[in-house]
Every structure is written in C-alpha cells, then in structure tokens.
UniProtKB/TrEMBL annotation:
Keywords: Repeat. This is Tripartite motif-containing protein 2-like. GO terms for molecular function: ubiquitin protein ligase activity; zinc ion binding. NHL repeats lie at residues 39-83, 174-215. It comes from the Eukaryota. One of its GO terms (biological process) is proteasome-mediated ubiquitin-dependent protein catabolic process. Signal peptide: none annotated. It comes from Oopsacas minuta.
Length: 215
C-alpha cells in the first residue's frame, strides 16, 4: 500500500484522511495519503527539534491538528504541526521513558515508564495529575499502549502480564480481562490497542497466532 519501504513501523494514526506512521529505527514520522502516497517525512536520530531517538506512540489533536509523538530515549513528547514542522516539546525534565500518548478535547495523557505512570495535562499543557496505574493491587508490568473511551476510562495493554486493564479517570482499576494463552480472550504479549467508533476494543498481540481480537 505505502509508496516506500519502512524501517520497522510501530505507531499509526489516521486523521482527516491522512495517515501518520512512526518508523522506529528510522527515527522519523511519515505522513501519507490514504492510498499510500508519501506526502512528507520528518526526523532523524538525535535530540534536537524534530529529531527522535526511538519514537513510539503518537496521536493527533482534534482541537488544533497538532501531532504528538513520544520520543522514548529523549524522555519527552514532541509536538509537530499537521505539516510535520516542529511546534514545541512537552515534559522536559519530567518523563523517564515515554511510551504512548493520547489527546482528547481538553486533556493530553502520556504513558511513562516511571511507576509506570500516566501524566495528565490540560489543553494548555499544564500538568494537572499523575496517575500511578496499578492492576489487581500491584503495579502493571510493562504497559505498552492505551486508548480512552467515551467515559474517559483508560484501556491499557499490559505486555508482560498478558492482559488488558481498564482504569477510571483517577487511575483506579475497574476491569481486567485476558490471561496468557492462545485461545479466545487470551493473549501472549498484547501490544497495540484501539477502540472503534462503537466502543469495541481491538487488541493486537506480539506472539499470538490470532494477533487481533475484538471485545
């Protein structure tokens, strides 16, 4: 589909009929037309503006169309315009290792490796809360991706616990499903997670043969 070879694509977001893709080892972000034609690519390995060192999660703001990118090794979130020009940075001297980011109408949530922890910012990028995400009375074990439902609950894949947790806005666990295995409702290293327009949860696994499951 896409017009050129990628170097381990690891994150994707579709916004206003444009596709944004992270290339992990390319340390860059690509923007495509829906049919796969490359519009623009930005980034190289480094710690400057619009440079990345292991970019992971990304999301696009419906409020201003800015692109938020987790810059894992640089311990920050970079914010680009929809044209992939550098705009600003988030979380300097705050994050440990950023893994995923989601932008809602009035909040920016960043999953970080410190805790693990969810940092919550308002729309002006002021830190308003820090949620320690714990499951079953203990700390989660390598949460990798998350999404947010219409009630602002956090749905998070836990790579090493082989399950999916659901937390409320305060970071309290309200549900958990999945266990290690290859049957229906079982996971081996769940990684990608998303909600469709009806609220169904879609989970992609790293090692399962049934790599996509719907709930």
């Amino acid at each position: 589909m896409f017009s050129e070879k990628m170097n381990r694509p690891i994150g994707i977001c579709i916004f206003q009929n444009k596709v944004f893709v992270i290339q992990l080892y390319g340390h860059c972000i690509n923007k495509y037309e829906l049919e796969g034609k490359l519009i623009k690519s930005v980034g190289s390995k480094g710690n400057g503006e619009a440079q990345f060192d292991v970019p992971l999660g990304l999301d696009v703001s419906n409020r201003n169309s800015n692109v938020y990118v987790c810059d894992f090794q640089n311990k920050r979130v970079q914010i680009l315009t929809q044209e992939l020009k550098f705009h600003s940075m988030l979380g300097i001297d705050l994050f440990k290792y950023t893994r995923d980011v989601k932008v809602t109408r009035d909040r920016v949530l960043v999953l970080d490796d410190s805790g693990p922890c969810m940092f919550v910012f308002n729309s002006d990028h002021v830190l308003t809360n820090r949620l320690i995400t714990r499951g079953d009375g203990k700390q989660t074990n390598f949460p990798l991706r998350f999404d947010i439902d219409r009630d602002y609950n956090i749905i998070m894949s836990d790579y090493n616990n082989h399950c999916v947790y659901v937390f409320n806005q305060e970071g309290e666990q309200i549900h958990k499903f999945g266990k290690e295995g290859q049957g229906n409702g079982e996971f081996i290293n769940p990684c990608g997670i998303a909600l469709d327009s009806t609220g169904h949860i879609i989970v992609a696994c790293h090692k399962n043969t049934n790599c996509l499951q719907f709930f």
